[in-house]
Design brief:
Elements (H helix, E strand, L loop, with lengths): L1 H7 L5 H8 L3 H13 L4 E3 L7 E3 L12 H16 L9 H10 L3 H11 L2 E3 L5 H5 L6 H13 L1 E8 L5 E14 L2 E8 L4 E6 L3 E10 L20
Parallel strand pairs: 3-5
Antiparallel strand pairs: 1-2, 4-5, 4-8, 5-6, 6-7
Helix pairs in contact: 2-3, 4-5
């Protein structure tokens, strides 16, 4: 509410804001400080008659992101930062804070839990990269939904021997060995943890059946580099 008002109005004084919202000036000042910490660009005009306002350039182009889109962007930022790429990272912290500030506390907690399920490993070998395949968009969407909603997925998977097997998996974690993605899952066929190369998934179908998330430690042996599918 306060952010919207600051965006719409030319200039608001702390005194006027306090009167309009029925709170003390100290409360408004505290809220403005919190909004700055969350990445909102609040300008202040000092001196007699001065006031505060949101930078007019804030919300470039009035971009409206849906919750899934915002989650995807936030996770992509997290991945980029974890990879320690030296390029184009200067403003990611501010972008992340603004995205997080747009979420309700419940959704914020959900996103934080989801981010902890994205694992960043070593760069894939040249041999693995040379065998990469394009992942069909429908497979990507199904994996994405199953991962976010914690629901099992039926997949057709091409093994290393090129044979196709049918599996039902629980996508607990995603692992990036750049540029190759893996899904770290419980395989119902083997009744055990397994790691699947995402680009070897030929088709995927959501089942609508949920699963209980297991801790990363349950997959440590499967995450050993020698056990990753090449």
């Amino acid at each position: 509410m306060l952010a919207v008002q600051l965006k719409q109005n030319e200039l608001c004084t702390v005194q006027n804001l306090a009167q309009q919202h029925g709170v003390s000036e100290r409360t408004i000042t505290r809220d403005l400080s919190l909004m700055r910490e969350q990445g909102l660009p609040i300008d202040a005009d000092r001196g007699r008659g001065g006031g505060v306002r949101l930078d007019r350039k804030w919300g470039v182009g009035r971009i409206n992101l849906s919750y899934p889109e915002a989650v995807d962007l936030l996770i992509s930022i997290e991945v980029a930062e974890q990879m320690n790429s030296p390029m184009f990272l200067a403003n990611l912290g501010s972008v992340r804070r603004q995205l997080v500030a747009s979420f309700s506390p419940e959704k914020r907690n959900k996103v934080e839990r989801m981010k902890s399920r994205i694992l960043i490993g070593d760069t894939a070998s040249t041999y693995v990269q040379s065998s990469m395949n394009a992942l069909p968009e429908r497979v990507v969407q199904t994996l994405h939904q199953g991962f976010i909603d914690q629901q099992t997925i039926e997949i057709s998977y091409q093994r290393e021997d090129m044979e196709i097997s049918q599996r039902v998996i629980e996508p607990h974690f995603l692992l990036l060995n750049y540029p190759v993605w893996y899904v770290v899952a419980i395989d119902h066929l083997r009744k055990a943890p397994r790691v699947f190369r995402c680009d070897r998934i030929q088709s995927a179908l959501g089942t609508g059946t949920g699963f209980k998330l297991l801790p990363k430690g349950a997959f440590d042996r499967s995450l050993d580099g020698s056990n990753l599918s090449v």
